[in-house]
Amino acid sequence: MEKSAGVLLALGLVLLPPALADGDHGGSTTVRPIASSTDLGSLGPGVTVQSLASGNRSWDGAVLPPLSAAQPEVNVLRMSVPPGVTLNLHKHPVIHAAVLLQGRLLLETEKGSTQLLEPGQAAIEVVNTAHRSLSLGPDPAVMIIVFVGPQGKPITLPAVP
Questions:
Q1: Measuring CA to CA, which residue among 21, 18, 76, 19 is closest to residue 52?
Q2: Which one, 1, 51, 135, 156, has least CB within 10 Å?
Q3: Is 153 exposed, middle or buried (0-12, 13-18, 19+ CB in 10 A)?
Q4: What b/e readout covers 31-63, taking b as 16+ CB neighbours within 10 angstroms?
Q5: Which tens digit of pLDDT belongs to each residue from 89-101?
Q6: What's the angle, vertex CA 55, arms to CA 134 and CA 72, rounded to 5?
Q7: pTM of this structure
Q8: DSSP conformational letter for 125
Q9: Which domains does the chain have, with CATH numbers?
Q10: Out of 1-15, 25-39, 59-73, 110-124, least confident range
């Protein structure tokens, strides 16, 4: 199941538990169906496929960079950040998106743009932009992050002042 969920996340699809399927996440993310069962074929009785985020811009409004002709590599990570911890300033040279499973997470660019994520919300992350995240608690911020970039290249770099 975990491997299947990772594949679906990499494809931009997520199977949601009923508690998240109603679209009420307390924030600005709109949960909407992306295809009917006839478009996707029969996945099984009661299965719901929804898009949590779709677009060509990151959460701060910047247009995503074009994809390269290099062999792509997909990395699907589960990350947990303890309450009260702020990640060091860093940047990602590849396109990626995150879904917050638990906790509350404040995303912040070096220039001061912010985005608050609540459980069930997704964000298309900033690319080549220095940023950090703060786990607001009271629970750890647990997220699934999907990175797509050239094979063998780093997905995270320290922000250089």
A1: 21
A2: 1
A3: exposed
A4: beeeeeeeeeeeeeeeeebbbbbeeeebbbebe
A5: 999 999 999 999 9
A6: 85
A7: 0.71
A8: P
A9: 2-158 (2.60.120.10)
A10: 1-15
